[in-house]
Amino acid sequence: MPPHLIFMPMPDTQTASDVFYVIDFDSTVTRVEGLDELAAIALEGQPDAAEKVAAVRRITDQGMDGSMTFSESLQQRLALLSAHRDHLTPLVASLHGKISESFLRNKAFFAQHAEHIIVISSGFREFVAPIATSLGVRPENIYANEFTYDAEGNIVGVDQSNVLSENNGKVKLLNRLQLPGKVYVIGDGYTDYEIRAAGLADKFYAFTENVQRANVLEKADHIAPNLEEFLFVNKLPMSVSYPKHRIKVLLLENIHKKANEIFQTEGYQLEVVNGGLDEDELCERIRDVQILGIRSKTQVTARVLEHANRLMTIGAFCIGTNQIDLETCKEKGVAVFNAPYSNTRSVVELAISEMIALIRGVFPKSMAMHQGQWDKSAKNSNEIRGKKLGIIGYGNIGAQLSVLAEAMGMKVYFYDIVDRLALGNVQKCDTLEELLRQADVVTLHIDGRPENKNFFGAHEFGQMKDGAVFLNLARGPVVQIPALVEALKSGKLRGAGVDVFPEEPKNNDEPFVSELIGLHNVILTPHVGGSTEEAQFNIAEFVPGKIIDYINSGSTFMSVNFPNLQLPAFGGAHRLLHIHRNTPGVIANINRVLSEHGTNIVGQHLKTNETIGYVITDVDKAYDKDVIKALKEIPNTIKFRVLY
Ligand SMILES: NC(=O)c1ccc[n+]([C@@H]2O[C@H](COP(=O)([O-])OP(=O)(O)OC[C@H]3O[C@@H](n4cnc5c(N)ncnc54)[C@H](O)[C@@H]3O)[C@@H](O)[C@H]2O)c1
Ligand SMILES: O=C(O)CC[C@@H](O)C(=O)O
Which label site among 29, 363, 608, 621 has the fewest CB atoms less than 10 Å from its CB? Predict the structure, then answer.
């Protein structure tokens, strides 16, 4: 046996439990196959280059998936290549730009485990070595084929004395190396699996960042979508605190696909359900989910949250968050985000269109026309100009509506339980009654907090002007539907526009049932106030942005239930995030633990609300890792995580 084929680990660092990491090169260390790249460079400009490059790729695949013997595939490819020694320099330059992203991110692993990292490639040393050594692999730990050349420097073959040029070359090489410890192989090809099949490796990790081969995946002990997965399961040093592909997102209720795109680009696992889920279904589906995305239908109850073992954050892809048990979320350390402005304009536009349509009697006229009746008259048809609009709830929607309504010549009044600044010439009413007594159009834009249930009933309709128009585009349960029906049937109201209902179908297949069906001059819409292409796109961009920021930096800016902290970048430090019950002494305990472990604090931020406290501590990278366990054990800790 040639002496260089006996592996010589560093004697002073070796122990019986040592693990050797055997790494494939083509399509694993690099995103591409080296010989495919060489073909593209060598054949450039030749008339039949495209066909030949495609043929080389096809043969590479056959060799990699095991459908052609390796030495046959190598011979066939070399014959097609027509490559020269001079092509190797541009090849190496090109491969430097095509190193797998997760390998580039994790150079620390190569630095810390250099003596146990071995690259074994059926590719060629001429391009494998410069790339692998740039990551920190030791030259003596690189095993690969070598080209043979003719006198003019043309590549004419492979060094046949190298065991890797043979069929089963990797197995034969491993056999000879006699690695003194466990062997974990990571690679994308069948020849990598063969090492495990021959009993020469303890585990085979199929690496799928660049290619996936079904027959390799089915043989793998573990599938690694990137190097972080391999490092994570083996508790090895990683460039990130947690592999992103392990973060599971569940999106319900037809959230705009822009959100899917954003979460996928971030590297998260995505599961999408088109409709809503009922409580039992959600309890089942939420078990291993870290990020939940919903709209207004899904009820996130305390029972659902009981089942959400790994939930970190919920995105309400809408304005309202009354469908979420925010208190329980706080107690469980689940941060909730929404999109407070993204669909405001859409609701305002629908409200304006409805008040015009109702005051002109557009819908009854249109219905009559559909039945062949021509009723050309001005009776019960009015302009909105000069009419009084009463806005109940002068928040984002109410205020924006007031600006547009004034621009159309309406006199605008509002009533709100908090002191809001009146825009333009809008007049504030001190009581609800004051507003109801004078408004020609009353429109609800209050939120769906529990106290607002049944907010508007017979008493309030009774205080309205005869012949007024009523709109609810806020939340269904705030209006008592029997009282509204009575006000419409008795002629007290001229008409109504209703977009939201106490009971709404869970999805588009369920029927809509309501006492409002069939009433004269009533516009019914299926909770679409915020459902425009523009609004849904804006929401689908906004909410993932907040969630990703929270996951990556801990920022809770604009969270609806967490103390809001907008955090600076933490380059060069590790960030410790501690969520706890807001009781005296927790911050003191945190700092005592940090000081006892000699941890150097780079920066610290604390914010509390009535229920929870949120402390972010940036510390020097070099710290005693036992501090993590101690911080988690501080009484009243709800959740703790580390970011880097
Ligand atoms: N139909 C839809 O598709 C649709 C779309 C977006 C928003 N909405 C709903 O519209 C409502 C308003 O949205 P927003 O963004 O303007 O919210 P917002 O929080 O900015 O404003 C709500 C306002 O209502 C006030 N308010 C609450 N209860 C009140 C009460 N009992 N009496 C008087 N004022 C009260 C609040 O003080 C606040 O000023 C929310 O319920 C939201 O869910 C519906
Ligand atoms: O799109 C939805 O489901 C809800 C829209 C609206 O009620 C909101 O709260 O933003």
Answer: 621
Atom of ligand 1 nearest to the CA of 418: 37
Nearest to 19 by CA among 233, 244, 241: 233
Residue 352 has pLDDT above 50, yes or no: yes
Is the CB of 538 inside a 6 Å radius of any atom of ligand 2? no
- CATH match for 244-337 among 3.90.550.10, 3.40.50.720, 3.40.50.740, 3.40.50.2300: 3.40.50.720
User: What's the CA gap between 604 and 391, in Å, rounded?
Assistant: 44
CATH architecture of 344-531: 3-Layer(aba) Sandwich (3.40)
Q: Which atom, in ligand 2's list, is nearest to the CA of 530?
A: 5
Cβ(421) – ligand 1 distance below 6 Å: no
CATH superfamily of 3-233: HAD superfamily/HAD-like (3.40.50.1000)
pLDDT, tens digit, for every residue of 591-640?
999 999 999 999 999 999 999 999 999 999 888 889 999 999 999 999 99
Order of strands, edge to edge, in the sheet holding 637-643?
Answer: 601-608, 612-620, 573-581, 637-643
Mutate which of 396, 445, 560 to test ligand 1's pocket (most atoms within 8 Å of Cβ)?
445
Q: How far is Cα 377 from Cα 41, in angstroms, rounded to an integer? A: 79
Q: Which of helix, strand or coil describes residue 154?
A: strand
- In whole angstroms, what is the distance from residue 112 CA to residue 183 CA? 17
Of 603, 610, 606, the C-alpha closest to 589 is 606
Cα–Cα distance, 469 to 462 (Å, whole number): 13
Average pLDDT over residues 7-33: 75
Task: From 29, 31, 8, 12, select the one nearest 20 (Cα to Cα).
Answer: 8
Contact 388, 440 (CB under 8 A): yes
Measured from the Cα of 448, ligand 2's closest atom is 9
Task: Identify the residue whose tokens are 């692993």.
Answer: 109
Greater confidence (611 vs 275) lies with 611
Mean pLDDT of the chain: 95
Q: How far is the CA of 358 from the centre of ligand 1 (A)?
A: 22
Note the pTM of the prediction, 2 decimals: 0.86
Task: Report which DSSP code applies to 608.
Answer: E
Same CATH fold assignment for domains 3-233 and 344-531? yes
CA–CA–CA angle 262, 549, 290 (5° rounding): 75
From the list 331, 406, 486, 504, the catalytic residue is: 504
Break the chain into its structural domains and give their ranges: 3-233, 244-337, 344-531, 564-643
Say which CATH class 564-643 falls into: alpha beta
Task: Report which secondary-structure segment, H or E, holds 643.
Answer: strand 637-643
**Residues in the chain, total:** 644
For residue 300, the 8-state DSSP code is B
Structure tokens at 384: 């909105």
Q: Is 520 a catalytic residue?
A: no
Q: Give the tokens for residue 29.
A: 């260390």
- For residue 248 the two structure tokens come to 């599971």
Q: Is the ipTM of this complex over 0.90?
A: yes
Tokens read off for 554: 């801990």
Judged by its nearest atom, the ligand closest to the C-alpha of residue 254 is 2
Catalytic residue of the set 213, 285, 295, 475: 475
Q: Are 464 and 484 in contact (CB under 8 A)?
A: no
Beta-strand ranges (E) seen in 360-499 are 388-392, 411-415, 427-428, 441-444, 468-472, 493-498
pLDDT of 258 above 50:
yes
